[in-house]
Input
Amino acid sequence: MLAAFLALLTIVSIWMFAQRSWWITPLASEHGAALDRLFYITLAIAGVLFVVLQISLAIVVSRFGNRGADTPRASVRSRVQNRFALVAGVLIFGVDITLYVLGESQWLNVWGRAPETAAVVKATASQFMWHFHYPGRDGVSGRVSRDLITPDNPIGLDAIDPASKDDVVSANELHLALNQPVRVQLSSQDVIHSFYLPHFRVKQDAVPGMLVEVWFVPKKEGRFEIACNQLCGMFHYRMRGFAVVEPQQKVEEWLTQMAVK
Output
């Protein structure tokens, strides 16, 4: 019965994989291709290793099963089992090292230093919204303070600060320029949230009291979901925003319209 169940599970898994309706979201960022490639490599290695080890284990059990400690085959069984464990350990260790090296290089590419030309957007998380703060034409963001937070001023932007006069603040809508790097500086006003853009392969926690930065390059026009990937409270399901990727000119037009408002 166990063998039949495992065979059925394998068939169903292959069928679901072929459907791809539940698979990872279409890619929309530059660095995401390398991450997807690493994911597929990990999946292939894990799948092959699983099959090989399970078949080897089945052969060892069937040929050298426990028939009593005094049987002539007991010593042979012990040697085979020890060798099997050694080979399996070496294989798993080698796989772990390989995946670590591949993953570390991609981690440095994604979370390393951003290009000097990257645009800067500050993302402030709170229960249960995202607010995005853009510097104005002067390129300098105005000062923010928790003491200044009100329903009409959700991020606490200091109106007295000259740098804040042309700043733009939007709720749950992030506008990004196509093919241009962007640095998103994350902070939280209350609990830990998680800035998750599945199409861009970006996921980073927003932690109270910290300014955490992540950067990427949008490579596909469209409207993409922004989700909070941390259970941040009773209405966590409402914390949903959108990233709009469009040409640089349209982003500037949108910023101008928002500044006028």
In short: The chain is about 40% helix and 25% strand. Residues 15-111 form one domain. The radius of gyration is 26 Å.
